[in-house]
Design brief:
Shape: elongated
Strand order of the largest sheet: 1-2-3
Helix content: 40-55%
Largest sheet: 3 strands, antiparallel
Order of helices and strands: HHHHHHHEEEH
């Protein structure tokens, strides 16, 4: 009943693109990253059954990548995710005991500094002279709290998302970081900059 490593990777990638549980598909970049990071593991252990892979096999493969620091943590995350997927979906009651890595504890992040109105106004005026589109993006970030990726990413906003009459900006799920659509209120100061 055990899958081979190749079958498990293929099934996980397919599940990311079209989730069996009906959830949202993963972003193409996420799928591509997983495919690239697991490529060497597939080549080396592809025909081997998941249940035959040992912790030593995983450690040896991770070492062979030559990855360090954050890159190594990314490889660990991908390999652990693969074995967790096998534990969750593979028939036969598999238990992942070979790819369990402690997660790095996050440092406490200081709250963002608040820009004083006079400083923001000076910055806007300067940006308008240099690049009005950048000033518009900055206004959307400052006054609407939109993320840079939501404003100008590959699937960023366009004018059809802005409804000045209703006073809202529609952020589609495909653009939003949390993958949930939302409406953002257009404040009076943002409306002035949009006009």
């Amino acid at each position: 009943t055990s899958w081979t490593v190749e079958e498990c990777v293929a099934r996980q990638l397919k599940d990311l693109e079209s989730p069996e549980d009906g959830g949202s598909p993963a972003r193409p970049r996420t799928v591509s990253s997983k495919r690239n990071r697991l490529k060497g593991f597939r080549v080396h252990y592809g025909a081997k059954k998941i249940v035959e892979i040992t912790a030593a096999d995983v450690s040896s493969w991770l070492e062979s990548t030559g990855a360090k620091n954050q890159n190594l943590r990314n490889y660990r995350t991908e390999i652990q995710s693969l074995f967790n997927f096998a534990e969750k979906r593979m028939p036969g009651g598999y238990l992942n005991t070979v790819a369990r890595f402690p997660q790095k504890t996050r440092k406490e992040i200081q709250p963002a500094a608040i820009i004083q109105p006079k400083d923001a106004a000076a910055l806007f005026r300067r940006m308008e002279k240099i690049d009005p589109r950048a000033a518009l993006g900055f206004a959307l970030g400052c006054f609407a709290g939109l993320r840079t990726e939501e404003i100008s990413g590959p699937r960023g906003l366009d004018w059809s998302n802005v409804d000045l009459k209703a006073g809202t900006i529609f952020v589609p799920a495909t653009t939003a970081k949390a993958r949930v659509h939302r409406k953002v209120k257009i404040t009076a100061n943002l409306a002035a900059w949009l006009m």
